[in-house]
From TrEMBL:
Source superkingdom: Bacteria
Taxonomic classification: Bacteria, Pseudomonadati, Pseudomonadota, Alphaproteobacteria, Sphingomonadales
EC number: 4.3.1.19
Organism: Parasphingorhabdus cellanae
Annotated catalysed reactions: L-serine = pyruvate + NH4(+)
Annotated GO MF terms: threonine deaminase activity
Family that this chain belongs to: Belongs to the serine/threonine dehydratase family.
Cofactors (names): pyridoxal 5'-phosphate
Protein name: Threonine ammonia-lyase
Amino acid sequence: MTKENTAPLPTFSHDDVKAAHARIRDRVVQTPTLKSITLSEMAGAEVYLKFENLQFTAAYKERGALNALLLMDQDKRAAGVIAASAGNHAQGLAYNAKNLNIPATIVMPTTTPMVKVEQTRGHGAEIVMAGGNYDEAYSNALELAAQRGLTYIHAFDDPRVAAGQGTVAIEMLEAVPDLNRLIIPIGGGGLFSGMATAAHAINPNIKMTGVQAALYPSMYGRINGKEVTAGGDTLAEGIAVRNPSEFTAAIIQKHVDEILLVGEAQLEGAVSLLLQIEKTVVEGAGAAGLAALLGNKDKFAGEKVGLVLCGGNIDTRLLANVLLRDLARSGRLARLRLHLRDQPGALYNVVKQFAEHEVNIIEVYHQRVFTNLPAKGLITDIECEAKDKAQLDGLIADLNKVGYDVRQVELAD
């Protein structure tokens, strides 16, 4: 039977965040907080974006890591630090440890993409590949910390880290003092804990909304007293945390007005919108706030809302895939599946319909063997590009009208 942890939770206050701000402000990028005119029109609210994806390592995680490092005494600095991470915490810690001449070791799961491994190594850290997932990497990191006498710097279960993350709120409210609400992504809860503590001290009436990926609703379940299942491949891997800490949960419980859940299609759409409208690259977690805002327009109508674009580390191939999928959902790209007779002129007659509707054909795929059609039948998939959904719908309607069996291959929600 596991013994329950009854140790008191660390104390944490706005003073901790203010002290962190004074400590790190000259060592991190003072990222801009800017109004988005187009997103404001789309949302029916005044939308202000905090561009934390413009930090050197493209994420706010630098703030908490740096604050924790600066608070270490010289003996612990000399011995070095360690963390388990496959993402932004790894890079933020490695980068700032290098700048402070502190040896850093990062334990990464063996499943970590090599691009992230090399980026972290490039900041001077020793990389240890261990465990098939974060929990196993974390256990290995704790063992290494004990063996080598290293200080473990947790990504969120640490008041020094949360204080550093909270400096984001101080900067936002310095730039736009009359914000009505902050919408903040929640994974382990360090960012929300720090920001909410600072924001409510500055403005007790400001509303605090948290956002989680629907596949990882761990804090949502804890705050609302619900049994939830967390797991799956989410675009927002930066907030894909199964077990948030008691420390952050207690602070979030005190400050949060609500936690909203967003689906994968919403996250993909928000990533695409930020690139198209703001010309800025964000990862899935960084787009979570916008996804929640656009998915709940009635709730936020007329408010002055601050969103944190908390990170911009997204694989370029994945980003390309997200953009193409968004075009497909909007009706500008499509794959149409038709049943044809395997005879001369069959495809030509179909292509004529595309030409008449001015829909551009990108690729054509024929399948004659692996179908449930008769031997003289075939399945043809045509990938195409339209101006908008109405143009595509007109093509499909006319193809069906002249006798073709046509259906659109849909994307998953």
